[in-house]
Amino acid sequence: MKRHIPNFLTSCNLFSGCVGIVFCFSDRLLWACWAIVLAALFDFLDGFVARLLGVSSPIGKELDSLADCVTFGVLPATIIFVLLKGLTPDPYLPFSAFLLAVFSALRLAKFNIDTRQSDAFIGVPTPANALLIGSLPLIMTHQAEFAPYFLRLEVLLPFIVLMSYLLVAELPLFALKFKNYAWAGNQIRYIFLLLALLLLLSLQYLAVPIVIALYVVLSGLEKFVFQKP
After folding, report:
1. Phi, psi of 140 (to 5 degrees)
2. CA dihedral (86, 202, 213, 51) positive or negative
3. pTM attached to this predicted model
4. Distance between alpha carbon 61 and the CA centroid of its chain, in Å?
5. Which DSSP category does 57 fall into?
6. What 3-state DSSP class applies to 179?
7. 3-state helix, strand, coil in the chain (%, to 5)
8. Mean pLDDT for the stretch of residues 143-151
9. Cβ contacts of 101 within 8 Å, gap of 6 or more
10. DSSP-based three-state secondary structure for 86
11. Which residues, in sequence order, are CB contacts of 109 under 8 Å at separation 6+?
12. CATH 1.20.120.1760 fits 2-175, yes or no
C-alpha cells in the first residue's frame, strides 16, 4: 500500500495542473498561479515521501515527468498565452508562449536520461520556471505599480525565448537536496535560502523573479567560491 502513496501525490500534482489550465481559460489567472504553488508542494512531497518510506518505482519516475510537463510546462505557458492575448490584436503571436511547454518537455526528457543530474541540475528546473511565471499575475494584482515593467510585448516575447533556452542550456545549477545539514558542503544552499527568505519578506511577490535570478547567479558562483580546486 505504501508504495502507492508517492504516486498518489504525483497524481495530485497533475490534477492541480489540469485545474490550473482551466482557470487560465476562465480568466482566473490568480487561481492558476496558486494551482502551480499547490502542485509544487505535491511535487516536493512525492519525492520526500518516497525517500521517507524507502519506496520507488519506474512508473513513479515516468508519472512524475508526465505530471511536471503539464503542471510546470503547459500551465505556465498558458498563463503567458493569456497575458499576450491581452497585449496584442494579433491572433497568432500569443501561441509563441507554448514554446515554453515544448522546451519544458525537452528539459524533462533530458533529465530522465542524464546521469549527471542526480545531485544537481543542468538547466533551469521546470518548477522554478513555472513559479517565476506564476508570480507575474500575483505581482499584477498585489503590486500593480510594477506591472508596466513586464506586462509588455517587448518584455514577454524575449522572456519566452530566454527561459526556453535556459530550460535546456548546459547550465549547472545546485539542487536543494541536503545529504546532511552541516555548513560544509551546503554553504551555497544555506546562503540561497537565507537570501530568498529575506527577499520574500521584504519584496513579497516581486521577490520571486529576483530569487530565481539569484539561484542562477549563485549556481554560477558556487564552482569558483565554494568548491575546492
Report:
1. -55, -35
2. negative
3. 0.91
4. 18
5. -
6. coil
7. 80, 5, 20
8. 93
9. 69, 73, 74, 77
10. coil
11. 65
12. yes
- pLDDT of 155-200, one tens digit each? 999 999 999 999 999 888 988 776 666 777 778 889 999 999 999 9
Exposure on the CB side of residue 132, measured as CA atoms within 13 A: 26
* Residue tagged 492558476 (cell numbers): 32
Residue entry with cell 499576450: 84
- Distance from the first to the final alpha carbon of the chain: 47
Domains of the chain, by residue range, sit at: 2-175
- pLDDT tens digits, residue range 114-145? 777 767 788 999 999 999 999 999 999 999 99
How do residues 202-227 score in pLDDT, each as one tens digit?
999 999 999 999 999 988 887 666 55
Q: Which of 20, 24, 51, 212 is nearest to 127 (CA)?
A: 212
**Helical packing angle, 58-69 and 5-25, nearest 10°:** 10
